[in-house]
Write the structure tokens for this entry.
Amino acid sequence: MLYLFINRVHFNKYNAMYPTIEMVGKERIRKVLDENQLRLNCIICMETMNYPEEAAEAVQAAVDLSCEKIMLVPGRKEGSREELAQAMIESFTAYVKEADKYGITCVIEDDPCVQIPLCTREEMHRYFDSVPNLQMVYDTANMLLVNDDPIAYYREFLSYIKHMHIKDIRPIDEVVEYADVSIDGTTMLNSSHGTGVIDFAALFREFGKTQYDGTMALEFVPREDMDYAEDFKRVYTMFNKLIVENTIGVNQFGL
């Protein structure tokens, strides 16, 4: 699939899951990146709350692959909300301490699963206050699960935002796999960009006003009535147009 995008859609950045790097191997990943003039936007580390001891290896992978950011996804764990918050602080601290040695930035995003304490503004501020140098991935839709406003959320955390996930979302009438349920009981599902509830024109105007110059990545969901790569090209073109129109300091973004 990676080669499909390289051949049919022009982009130069890519996000990689750390489990994929472990499975495929750093040498093969580096070979693909070099051959196709790609670079890693971000390495995504899963279940960091359960495996904080993997921090050193994950950071070393970022160093070896010339990646400047690591995203920490805490995963799920049994316990009270306070116990989970403490576990996340401990794991975030372990990763940031290791990453700081190499000038690598660790980022977290508000989680769309409202059952863990990583959703509201108050919860997010607690982690940034508790873990020096921890930064943020701004997801354009996750805050809707706690009935918050995307633009207000962006303004609140602007000084922490180093990376973005550009995502659309829509309400559905049934609970399905990969859907999330908001605090008011609404089931929300990721959707193809431009088919959900996110006002991207307004968001990108705000990004331009505040001179955002970090990186962006698409959380791409293809339309069922279009060829996969052609729909990605449609979405990629749409967002590049918004970037140019709003004079945003991101000339290209990744997947």
